[in-house]
Automatic annotation (TrEMBL):
It comes from Streptomyces musisoli. It holds the Pfam family B12-binding. Residues 74-210 form the B12-binding domain. Its cofactor is [4Fe-4S] cluster. SUPFAM superfamilies: Radical SAM enzymes. It comes from the Bacteria. InterPro entries: BchE-like, Cobalamin-bd, Elp3/MiaA/NifB-like_rSAM, rSAM, rSAM_horseshoe, rSAM_ocin_1, rSAM_sf. Keywords: Iron, Iron-sulfur, Metal-binding, S-adenosyl-L-methionine. This is RiPP maturation radical SAM C-methyltransferase. SMART domains: Elp3.
């Protein structure tokens, strides 16, 4: 059997498809007689735009539509006219949507005229490989491009078997995708390691796939959806990805000169925190929350092999959260390897300074710590299991260990109040030397999140997000099963407080690049050099218990706990004096206060900062 694996726009241009890399190995392992080929449609689309637009639409424009506009559905919309055989389909809807929200759509509008001829070219190339089965992987805005190509493939070759799988097919989304698109023969819902080879066996035998868990298939004109399994794929059955065909496509691509390619690896699936305390807003793990991880030795062996084979040192891990065992059995191996790797990792925001130091020593340059908020009560509403003081400490330690930190400041949680945000907003100017969030964003209602599955948490009214009106020509009851994002009645803060928060975050972002707040030890003195935006440059000098207090607050403490530590160190400080000093340190912006706890803000490190456009 000839199996052709496809990833369509808008997969990131700088990354190979982990899904294709895994499926390639899975099929060849289970069915060594099959021929497995790949089609990297994202690269093809960027190449197509570059060539046919005369260089006007470049890979940077691809990113602007495919990644930056993900919550407006622009990438799917570019191809919806192809899916519905109408170049004008959804144009008016998109213009109305964009006008109401201030969304820039000119780039998407410029791309759309090329979509139909691109899909035709894709179909020609895919069919030239002579496939028996074409399998699409779809995540986020890959649905419509995948459906458009699947429809064209079946139009040209009706006997071809078309299969869809991926995150967009999880749970009810997969069945809705199947029953509304008769040109899709099968949809694999959930993990594919066991299901896809089982489906191929049925196709070989010509039998109905009634025993493949989660699979959607056609029984005549009736769309069947097999019951999904609770069984998760064991780490031992998750292969190392094969990126050879991606490398060949990249090497031949004119897009290569515009991007910095990275490898993608997977150490773990699920979320160990979410198994116990599912963050209320998060739907990322879908129906597979159970945490599983490869042993650190095996993960390192996979990375070592991929780095040697592809000569790339940038490695992105897709784990939703790092396995804490990796601080013992994986990261030390990376440190000892001598490889000059650049790792990218998602972590929990309550890591210790020692753990963050190990990440830095291992070559980790970029982390996503899921900070989300700098107010402890709001963090409690999220069920994050961390305090604001720990989050601020994490931001500070990222500076100390030259870790780039990506995070969003989220708001809009049921039960939050203006009083939860006022003290945070007032203190944000003091944090300008620490890495700012991407912005202040109102949360959206995500399928599979506790906010979605339990209306009692505050989002009782919901409807498919407005952006899907310019993406799909389907009734709302079908969209309610198909889509991932939903609109609901706004919760939490709004009005002047929301505006103040957004303005304060924007000011933080604007002032960060040139701001510093640095510790320096000078004999018995502890110096703090304040070079933060919006403040006059000054150097503060601390000695005795004042210096000791500022150092003790690096870990974050209450005033009574600080008083006990100072006394244990031989500093007899009257309570009133300590209270007055803490108040003065707060006025100077040297400490951050969250309720009764304080954490010091100066850093010991001063990493090189590049302008955002150069990063």
């Amino acid at each position: 059997m000839r199996v052709h694996l496809v990833t369509m726009p808008w997969h990131p241009l700088d990354l190979p498809s982990l899904q294709l890399g895994l499926l390639n190995r899975i099929v060849r392992g289970a069915r060594p007689g099959d021929e497995v080929t790949e089609f990297h449609g994202s690269l093809r689309w960027a190449e197509f735009l570059l060539e046919h637009s005369g260089g006007r639409l470049r890979p940077g424009d691809y990113v602007a539509v495919g990644s930056d506009a993900i919550f407006h559905g622009l990438g799917d919309w570019v191809f919806s006219g192809v899916l519905y055989d109408d170049p004008a389909w959804g144009v008016a809807r998109l213009r109305d949507y964009a006008a109401g929200r201030g969304v820039f759509i000119d780039t998407a509008l410029a791309m759309r005229p090329y979509a139909a001829s691109f899909v035709e070219a894709c179909a020609t190339e895919v069919l030239a490989a002579g496939p028996d089965v074409v399998g699409f992987t779809t995540t986020f805005m890959q649905n419509v491009p995948s459906l458009a190509l699947a429809r064209e493939l079946k139009r040209r070759r009706p006997e071809l078997t078309v299969v869809l799988g991926g995150s967009n097919c999880d749970g009810p989304m997969g069945h809705a995708l199947h029953r509304n698109h008769p040109f899709v023969d099968h949809v694999v819902r959930g993990e594919a390691e066991y299901a896809f080879p089982a489906l191929l066996r049925h196709l070989d035998a010509g039998t109905a796939p009634t025993d493949v868990p989660g699979l959607c298939w056609w029984d005549g004109t009736v769309s069947r959806a097999n019951t999904e399994t609770r069984r998760t794929v064991a780490p031992a059955d998750i292969p190392a990805p094969d990126y050879d065909q991606w490398q060949t496509a990249l090497d031949a691509s004119p897009v290569q000169e515009y991007i910095h390619p990275k490898l993608v690896v997977e150490g773990a699936r699920g979320c160990w925190w979410g198994e116990k305390h599912h963050c209320t807003f998060c739907g990322l793990n879908g129906t597979a929350m159970a945490f599983r991880a490869k042993p650190g030795e095996r993960l390192w062996a996979e990375i070592d092999r991929l780095v040697r084979r592809h000569r790339l040192l940038d490695v992105v891990t897709v784990d939703n959260i790092i396995d804490m065992a990796y601080f013992r059995d994986f990261l030390p191996r990376v440190v000892d390897s001598g490889w000059d790797l650049r790792l990218h990792y998602e972590v929990k925001s309550n890591l210790t300074p020692a753990q963050l130091r190990l990440l830095g020593d291992s070559g980790t340059v970029h982390i996503q710590p899921g900070i989300e908020s700098l107010g402890s009560r709001v963090l409690d509403l999220m069920d994050k299991g961390v305090t604001a003081v720990r989050n601020v400490r994490t931001l500070r330690e990222c500076e100390n260990h030259a870790l780039t930190c990506s995070w969003n400041l989220l708001y809009g949680f049921p039960g939050e109040t203006a009083e939860d945000y006022a003290p945070v907003i007032d203190q944000l100017p003091a944090l300008v030397h620490l890495q700012p969030p991407s912005g202040a964003h109102r949360i959206q209602l995500e399928r599979f999140s506790p906010h979605f599955t339990d209306p009692g948490l505050g989002f009782g009214k919901r409807r498919p997000a407005e952006m899907y009106q310019h993406v799909y020509e389907l009734p709302e009851e079908e969209l309610a099963d198909l889509v991932y994002l939903f609109d609901s009645e706004p919760a939490g803060i709004g009005g002047p407080v929301e505006q103040r928060l957004k303005e304060a975050v924007a000011a933080w972002r604007a002032g960060h690049a040139h701001s510093r707040l640095l510790f320096e030890e000078d004999g018995a003195e502890l110096l703090v050099h304040d070079r933060r935006h919006g403040r006059p440059p000054v150097t503060h000098r601390f000695t005795g218990w004042h210096a000791a207090a500022l150092r003790h607050l690096e870990d974050g403490r209450t005033v009574p706990a600080l008083h006990r530590l100072l006394a244990a160190g031989g500093h007899r400080v009257p309570t009133g004096d300590l209270d007055a000093w803490i108040g003065r340190a707060g006025e100077l912006g040297l400490v951050f206060r969250d309720g009764a706890a304080y954490v010091s803000l100066p850093t010991w490190g001063e990493p090189v900062r590049l302008p955002e456009e150069a990063g």
